[in-house]
Amino acid sequence: MKIKKIIFIEPKSPDFHIFSGMSLPRLGTVLLGTALKEKGYNVRSYVEEIEELDIEDALTADAVGISTITSTSTRAYEIARILKKEGIPVFMGGAHVTYMPDEALEVCDYVLRGEADETIVDFIKALETGTGFEAITGLSYKKNGETIHNKTISYYKDMDKLPYPDFSIVKGLGKEARKKLSITPIMTSRGCPYDCSFCSVTGMFGRQYRFRSKEKIIEELQLNKDNGGKWVFFYDDNFSADKKRTKELLKLMIEKDLTPKWTAQVRVDVAKDPELLDLMKRSNCHTVYIGFESVNPETLKAYNKKQSVEDIKDCIKKLHDHGIRIHGMFVFGSDNDTVETIRQTVSFAKKNNIESVQFMILTPLPGTRFFREMEEQKRFITKDWSLYDAHHAVFEPKKMTYYELQAETVKATARFYSIGQIIKRAVKLHMFNVSIKIYGRNLTKKWAKKNEYFLEYTKAITEKGRQIELAAKNTAGDIKEKFRHLEISGALARLNAVKKILNLKL
Questions:
Q1: Which residues contact 296 (CB under 8 A, 6 or more apart)?
Q2: pLDDT confidence bin for 47, thresholds 50/70/90
Q3: Same domain (yes/no): 142, 192
Q4: What is the pTM (predicted TM-score) of this model?
Q5: CATH code of the domain in which 90 resides
């Protein structure tokens, strides 16, 4: 079979989220598509957050690759079923199917587990010839009714061999792709040396921190500038994991006058390095995204965050002192969290003037320790993957009800993005923050309206659980009372027997 046309698909998220207003493609399918384009294939990529999939176009492809995370897997499976039914070879990749390959193989032909940068060309050649699948690392497929999982994935080592992503292959962007993107993603590293209990990054990309050379990143920054790119998002799980390397990169950016407004994900420990903070400011860092996760010390321990509440406070102050804005991310629902924990977190975020926040619900993603724990403890409420977006409660928490976790998280977001907070920023003429607050408020209202049914569902489930619990308690109480009566009767019988013996002796 000769393969000429290949289409990649990044399914849309099932619901609104904080970045819904930004056209920011994940880099996986774009990088794979670029590698294949350089080999002469006709490649097109549909990022559904940018442009809806044209299913008729997809049906003309010789092969289709679908990337998915857990929350988009339902949509991904829906597309895969349609294409496979029409005889189109379908392969899938991404975090969710890496951990759930058997599930994915029910609807697609192949699963490329983990990083497919080194294997994608060989895989397409195997598709063309119908042979050589057994030699492809990390490939899962079916042969003669048997499911085969090739040896464990290996992580891409020479990051400089990765191509510069060709965003023109993304439908809706075209030749002026970088100019059309509101923020250009540039990846400088993969992997994270930390291992938070709820995070799937280390399973997908490993704990070994791998990075591209400073020279390659500078070249891509220049390419982005020459092609009309504006803001840059450093697409790393932890941009500052190796502080020495990060500082060298920022120094070179300043030296080469390649300092667009940029954002990145970092940890609170950036605040412990004054030189790094100074370089971030000088290189035009606009906003950092930080997983604060919690203001409950016990929860931070449970999450394996290796940071304290004092570290968080210090980080916020020092970043603000350097004029760097903060997008704080908090996760509710640990076994140590209560309703009060959620309310305290909102007060903390407002008191410390964090510019924007995401209040997320702890979500057991496949491949994480937390997922395995919930499996063992049988605490899942649902495995509807479309709800696994960190905005819907999908497991039974310990110190609050299912409904309380969901409702209080929604209320927390509404409180942070309240009219009062908007006015407070407006009075101080912090107009960028005003716009962020208005955006967050509108998105929260939109989400709450669309998800009224889910709030009612959590309420009904909780009420049903209470009824069952009450019935169980009543039943247990009845049984206990019966046993008590039996014990008393037995004790009386024994006492009477003793009395009879004593009377006989007397």
A1: 334, 336, 337, 341, 344
A2: very high
A3: no
A4: 0.85
A5: 3.40.50.280
DSSP 77-122: HHHHHHHHHTT--EEEESHHHHH-HHHHTTT-SEEE-S--TTTHHH
* Matching residue, tokens 């490649």: 43
Which pLDDT does position 500 carry in this prediction? Answer: 56
Instruction: Please enumerate, as own/partner, the contacts of 174-180 that have beta carbons within 8 Å and a separation of 24 or more.
Output: 176/227, 176/228, 177/227, 178/224, 178/227, 178/228, 178/229, 179/227, 179/228, 179/229, 179/230, 180/23
- Written as one string, the DSSP assignment of 405-433 is HHHHHHHHHHHHT-HHHHHHHHHTT-HHH
172, 40 contact by CB (below 8 A): no
- Report residue 141: phi and psi, to 5°: -165, 175
Number of H helices, E strands in the chain: 19, 15
Start-to-end Cα distance in the chain: 107
**Number of domains the chain is built from:** 2
Place of tokens 């399914």: 11
Distance from C-alpha of 376 to C-alpha of 242, rounded to nearest angstrom: 36
pLDDT interval class at 502 (50, 70, 90): very low
Question: Cα(496)–Cα(492) distance, rounded to whole angstroms?
Answer: 6
- CA 100 from chain centre, in angstroms, equals 16
Residue 215 located in a structural domain = yes
Tell me the C-alpha to C-alpha distance, in Å, between residue 12 and each of 101, 200, 383, 397.
20, 20, 19, 28
- Of the pLDDT bands very low, low, confident and very high (cuts 50, 70, 90), residue 153 is confident
Domain boundary among 377, 407, 435: 377
Range of the domain at 282: 182-377
Measuring CA to CA, which residue among 408, 409, 420, 400 is closest to residue 466? 400
d(CA 6, CA 89): 10
What pLDDT does residue 200 have? 60
Q: Are residues 105 and 206 in the same domain?
A: no
End residue of a domain, out of 149, 169, 204? 149
Q: Let me know whether 188 and 136 are in one domain.
A: no
Q: Which residue has the higher pLDDT, 461 or 397?
A: 397
Residue 207 — pLDDT band, cuts 50, 70, 90?
low
Cβ 264 vs Cβ 236: under 8 Å = yes
Answer yes or no: is 166 within a domain. Answer: no
* C-alpha of 316 from chain center: 23
| Beta pairing, strands 189-190 & 210-211 | antiparallel
